[in-house]
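Schema walk-through. Below, the input block comes first and the output block second. Nothing else is stored per chain. Lengths vary across the set, and this one has 253 residues.
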Amino acid sequence: MNPPTSPPLAAVPNAARVPAYKRILLKLSGEALMGDDPYGINREVIDRIVAEIGEVHDLGVQLAVVIGGGNIFRGVAPGAAGMDRATADYMGMLATIMNALALADALRRAGVESRVQSALRIDQVAEPYIRGRALRHLEERKVVIFAAGTGNPFFTTDTAAALRGREMGVDIVLKATKVDGVYTADPKKDASAKRYADLTFDEAIVRNLKVMDATALALCRDQTMLLKVFSIFKPGALKRVVMGEDEGTLVHC
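--- output ---
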């Protein structure tokens, strides 16, 4: 199946320039919140990300977010060496809840209403994940932030993004990274590396391109969901993706 195509925006009258997607899921890594800091949450970075989200929200796009916890703790990180893997993964889920609360607070300060839903019960600070309630929040134009991954150890937040994206019926899953797409090689190490404009899920899996983990890619493929990989550190990139411009790499069936 070929990826959907849109006419060049330059050829579309300004009045007709509407978002290419009505409902999206944004996958944010915990590491994205660190900026240049060695760990934790960088205030300038999270405020800039919120500004990007706010631009898309103002377009009328319904937006859900899955957030990681690698800036605080990861179950597969060196700090978890020697720990029971399930215990370490649960600790990582708690880290995602901290990040989700920080993002929700930053959105509130920016005037964007949001709700945090957690796959782990922690009712004092977050709603439990309830699909129907999450869908209602989206329809009411609240940003829904999904925390604690899938609520199960041994699954990454990439898999949680694919799962929640399918449950929410989003038009596309957007994976925000530090690189502006998927390359033939690491562009920081190989100057000749080329960015893919698009590729299939099977190509990404076979070539081991590290777009997402294999479970997440297979879930997106089997559910025929579109995936776009782009740089969250490139100003305006999120809006350009939502508007259907040539930004990042589109992964499709």
